[in-house]
Request: fold
Amino acid sequence: MKFSHKKSGFYFREVIGGQYDRISMALSVLRQRISFALICFCALNIIIIARIVFLSSQPRLSDHDKNIIQQQNANLVRADIVDRNGMIVATSLPTVSVYANAKDIIDIDEAVECLKKVFKDLNYQKIRKILETGKRFVWIKRHITPVQQEALLSQGIPGVYFIKTERRIYPDRNLLSHILGFTDVDNIGIAGIEHSQNDRIINEPSSLQLSIDIRLQHAMRDELSVGIEEFNAIGASGIIYEIDTGEVLAMCSLPDFDPNQRSRSSSKNKFNKCTCAVMEPGSTAKIFTTAMALESGKVQLGSVFDVVSPLTVGRYRIEDYHPQNRPLTTEEVFKCSSNIGAARMALQVGGQTQRQFYKDLGMFVPVQLELPELQAPLYPKVWRESTVITVSYGYGIALTPMHMVMGVASILNKGRILSPTLLRGKNIDVQGIKRIISEATYKKMVHLLRLVVQEGTSRKAEVSGYHVVGKTGTSEKLHGKTYSKNSNMCFFIGAFPTDQPKYLIFIMLDEPKANRNTFGFAAAGWNAAPVASRVIKRIGSILNIVPDKAG
Amino acid sequence: MFSVFVAVFMGCGLFEFKYKVASLNSQARKLEKEITQTQCNIKILSAELQYLTTPKRLQSLANRHFSLDKAEVNQLFSLREVKDYFEGKTPTVERDSLQSLLTKASTVSRSPKK
Reply:
C-alpha cells in the first residue's frame, strides 16, 4: 500500500513524518544498490557468456600446427649465397628429422625393431641405451628423406616424432667447395665463407653475393683437371683475379670435395691449396725482385749483370736453368729467368730495401681474405746476404698462391695494393690505397712480362688476340731437409690483355711429370703455361674481351 | 533498465566484432602458413633449377647433343664488328673470317647432331 503523509493529520506530520522520511530515503538507497548490483551481475554474466561463446567458436590450433609454423619460421634463417651473377651456390631447404621421447615409448625393444626396418645404418645399441635412460628428447636421425618419413609413419611407433629442420644444400657440388666450406648438423658454418660470414648469413635475410663467377670457376676447374690428367700431377690450384678491384673471380684447388657429403671426403681433399699451402714461389719471385730493383732507381732496363761467373751461398752454388754464358741486361735476365742475374740485381738494391718491399706487399702476414683457412707465409726472421740472394729467385721464403696473386696484382695495378676479397663490391671506394711502385715502373714491368711470353720461358701461355703477359716459375719441393729434383711445383702467373692488364691468372701444378709432348721436361713453361693458355682462351669470351685480330 | 540494455547491446556487438577478428586472424594464419609453404617450394625449385643448370651439367649436355667445338679466339667478334660487316666497313681479313663463321653457324643451326 502506498503511504502518503500529505493526507495525514498533525500527529502524523509531526511525529511519524520524520521517521517516514528516513525510511523512504533508506528504501531509495536500497533500490539504487539493488539496481547497481543487478547491472553488475548482468554485465558479468554477459562477459562470461560472450567469452564462453568466443572460446567455443574459436578453431583450435593444434600443437602440431603450432610446431610447423614456429619451426618453418625459426629454421629457414640461413640466407642463400649467390655468385656475382646471382646464381645460387648455397641454399637451405626444409627437411624432416626424427626424435624420440623415451617417456612416451611403451616398448623400447619393439620401437628399436621398427626403427631398424626403416634406417639400416643406425647404431641401435647406442639408441637403445639412451632410450632406457628415459630422456624426453633423443635424436634418432637428422635430415631423413620423404620416403623414410613415409615408412616411419607407416610403422606408427609411439613416442617417435618428427621435427621440421633445415639442411644446407650446395647445388654445384664440388665446384666451390673450398670457397663455400660447409655447416655442421646444427646449420652453423664451420668452414669457408659459411664460417667466416656466419653472423651475416644468419642475421641478414638477403643473399650474400660473392665475387666468384661460377662460369669462370667451372672453366678453371675443368682445365686444371685436364692438366692434372695430362701431366700426371698430384694436385693443382688456380685463381682468376680482377686486378683493379681485388675481387677473386675464381679460386680452385684440386683435389676437392662435395660439401653435401663432406664426411665421405678425406682431409687431403678439404685442404685449400690456394690459401693454406705455402710454397717457395720459384722464378715468379723475379717479378718482385725486378719491380723492386727498377723502382729503387739503382737498376735500369739496360743495366748489365754478370751471369757468367758463378755465385755461391755458403756451400751452395747458384746456377741458371738456361745458362747464357754472357753478361745479360735486365730485360734478358727477366726473359731468360736467370737466377744469378736476379741475385746480383737484389744484391745491388740491398737486403733492407728487399725486406721492406716484401713487407709492404704483405708477404709476411696472412692475406686478408674472407676465409678462416689462411696460412701465414714462412720467411727468415734474420735477413742475411744469403737470404737476399735466395729470395731474389724465389727460395728461402714460402708464400701461399693467394700471396703471389696479391703481390703480382699490386704491381699490375700500377702499384696500388688491394686486399683480395671474395665479396662483390667490397673494395669499391677504398680510401688510402698504398702504392708500391710508380706508373713508370708498372709500364716497364708490363713490357718485361710481355717479353717473357713473346720470347722467353712462357711462350706456351700466349693466346693470339689477347696478348698475355706473365711469368712461369718452377720450384723444387723440400723433402725433409733436401730439395727433390724429381718433384716440382710449377707456376704460371700472368694477366691479359696487355694494353691494360685487367684479369690475372694463376696456375699451379703439384708434381707434374714429364711426358712425350713435353720432350722430357717438367718445368712450368711446359705444363703450367699451356694450362693457363687454355683457361684464357675459354674465359676471354665470358669476360667480354674482344680479341685484337690485328695481332 | 537502459544500462542493462546498453550492456547487452554492447556485449552482442563485442561478440560480433571479436568473432570477425577471430575469423580474420584464422585466415591470416592460414595465409601465413601458405606463404611459408610457397616460399619453401620456391627455394626447393630454385635449388633444383640451379642443380639442372650447373656449368658441368650444361657442358655434358652440350657435348652430347651438339656437334660444336669450343669457341676459338678468332671466332669471337664484337657486335660493332658484326654491324660494320653488314655495312661493308670491316677490313677484308676480318670480313673473310666473319663470313666463314656466319656460314658455319647457319649450317650447324640447320643440322643438329643425330
